[in-house]
């Protein structure tokens, strides 16, 4: 097991074993997500070492695979959940209520119903509310347990405007109203335990001034709140620690971030809490895909692959850069067959959208039909944001851990995509048969 001191702060795509990845693609098919659980542990340990005086909660939304959650729970991490479904996953991974924070945004009624039921069995669960209305809805359901308030500090940062949450009206109670809201919650019988805010996702080294200002505002607020409602257990400053997606981008100086965070927070009688997600899993995963089409277009060479924006949506949604490596070309070069010429190529998926591209005019070794490509930093927000657009099944996932590789999530089939419709038809047939004994499955279910 690799010690933190021996673990590099970033794992580049070039450092993955090309032969092993090609073997996995051959064995499990393509597209395929590959996740290294030991790298997940290393990244968590690095965070825990940099923030020894803080509670580290993994943001489940980055990658909710059960193997990831159980690995991190066993390593000592708590789990921050954005939905009732994620809370259920956390409990199934072995976490107790005291190790789980439920931090939802505009939670649906069904989620709140489920959470309150779960709280009755796990009374140490912490619920974070981002509006007075949500607090009212919790009270209406009989919840008076551990309450954290999400505040809006009025300052945001992150890799794209769509993930800068700290100043977005959608998130949290305006900081200037937080003391009154928490005082009222305490008067109503809630167990007020903390305040929470999140500046944004993918914060880079050049955005640390915004991070420091955000944390300083949280420290000021914590001292104001403590003077009115008494001491808090924790001040949660979220996560957002970025990772370098470009090959020439330097990794975040995590120890400097930790020092700056503590200095900016100042003296508070509460424990610092952080909620990293991307930092823990991004470089622990790759997406494997196969070249199926090579086309000379007017201004570029289009390389068609079997993964697309349904498999990894970040390039289409955020204009995100992901490194790409031709594993077949690298293997050939390693065997002495010589290196392929590099030419500008546009790597595109099979989805009927012009935005379905992983890169445009990027210099890569000449691609040939059947080549295996690897897309790096796919461990965060890859499968979690995958979808079934164009009726495309989601890919399989394999995990590496303890010297073994195994299937962690099977590949979907078209039958899986269609199953909700088929089940609805069968239910409809059953209902009609109750009312009309003349109805038959063969009359109403064309799937049979």
Automatic annotation (TrEMBL):
The enzyme's E.C. designation: 4.1.1.20
Record GO terms (molecular function): diaminopimelate decarboxylase activity; pyridoxal phosphate binding
Gene Ontology BP term (one): lysine biosynthetic process via diaminopimelate
Keywords annotated in UniProt: Amino-acid biosynthesis, Decarboxylase, Lyase, Lysine biosynthesis, Pyridoxal phosphate
Residues reported to bind pyridoxal 5'-phosphate: 240, 275-278, 381
Pathway: Amino-acid biosynthesis; L-lysine biosynthesis via DAP pathway; L-lysine from DL-2,6-diaminopimelate: step 1/1
Family annotation (Gene3D superfamilies): Alanine racemase, Lyase, Ornithine Decarboxylase, Chain A, domain 1
Record PTM N6-(pyridoxal phosphate)lysine, positions in chain: 61
InterPro entries referenced in this protein's UniProt entry, alphabetically: Ala_racemase/Decarboxylase_C, DAP_deCOOHase_LysA, De-COase2_N, De-COase2_pyr-phos_BS, Orn/DAP/Arg_de-COase, PLP-binding_barrel
Cofactor names: pyridoxal 5'-phosphate
Any Pfam family: Orn_Arg_deC_N
Annotated residues for binding of substrate: 278, 314, 318, 353, 381
Role noted for this protein: Specifically catalyzes the decarboxylation of meso-diaminopimelate (meso-DAP) to L-lysine.
PANTHER family, per database record: DIAMINOPIMELATE DECARBOXYLASE, GROUP IV DECARBOXYLASE
Family: Belongs to the Orn/Lys/Arg decarboxylase class-II family. LysA subfamily.
Protein name, UniProt field: Diaminopimelate decarboxylase
The organism of origin for this protein: Natrinema ejinorense
């Amino acid at each position: 097991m690799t010690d933190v001191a021996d673990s590099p702060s970033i794992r580049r795509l070039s450092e993955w074993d090309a032969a092993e990845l090609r073997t996995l693609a051959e064995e499990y098919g393509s597209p395929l997500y590959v996740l290294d659980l030991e790298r997940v542990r290393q990244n968590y340990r690095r965070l825990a070492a940099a923030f020894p005086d803080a509670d580290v909660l993994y943001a489940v939304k980055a990658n909710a695979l059960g193997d990831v959650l159980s690995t991190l729970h066993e390593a000592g991490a708590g789990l921050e959940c954005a939905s009732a479904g994620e809370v259920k996953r956390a409990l199934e991974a072995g976490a107790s209520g005291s190790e789980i924070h439920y931090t939802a945004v505009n939670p649906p009624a069904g989620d709140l119903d489920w959470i309150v039921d779960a709280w009755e069995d796990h009374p140490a669960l912490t619920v974070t509310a981002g509006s007075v209305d949500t607090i009212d809805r919790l009270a209406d359901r009989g919840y008076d347990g551990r309450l954290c308030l999400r505040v809006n500090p009025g300052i945001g940062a992150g890799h794209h405007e769509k993930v800068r949450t700290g100043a977005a009206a959608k998130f949290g109670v305006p900081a200037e109203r937080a003391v009154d809201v928490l005082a009222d919650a305490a008067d109503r019988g809630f167990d007020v335990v903390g305040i929470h805010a999140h500046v944004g996702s993918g914060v880079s080294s050049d955005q640390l001034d915004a991070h420091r200002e955000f944390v300083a505002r949280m420290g000021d607020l914590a001292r104001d709140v403590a003077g009115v409602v008494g001491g808090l257990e924790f001040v949660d400053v979220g996560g957002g620690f970025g990772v370098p997606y470009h090959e020439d981008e330097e990794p975040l100086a995590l120890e400097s971030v930790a020092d700056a965070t503590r200095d900016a927070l100042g003296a508070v009688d509460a424990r610092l809490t952080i909620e990293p997600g991307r930092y823990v899993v991004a470089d622990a995963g790759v997406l494997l895909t196969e070249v199926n089409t090579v086309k000379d277009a007017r201004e570029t060479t289009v390389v068609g692959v079997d993964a697309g924006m349904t498999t990894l949506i970040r390039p289409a949604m955020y204009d995100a850069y992901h490194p790409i490596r031709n594993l077949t070309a690298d293997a050939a070069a390693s065997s002495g067959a010589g290196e392929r010429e590099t030419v500008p190529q546009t790597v595109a998926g099979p989805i009927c959208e012009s935005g379905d591209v992983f890169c445009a005019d990027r210099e890569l070794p000449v691609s040939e039909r059947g080549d295996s490509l690897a897309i790096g930093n796919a461990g965060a927000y890859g499968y979690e944001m995958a979808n079934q657009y164009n009726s495309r099944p989601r890919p399989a996932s394999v995990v590496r851990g303890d010297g073994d590789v195994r299937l962690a999530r099977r590949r979907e089939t078209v039958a899986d995509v269609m199953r909700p419709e088929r089940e609805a038809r069968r239910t409809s047939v059953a209902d009609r048969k109750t009312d009309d004994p003349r109805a038959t499955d063969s009359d109403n279910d064309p799937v049979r």
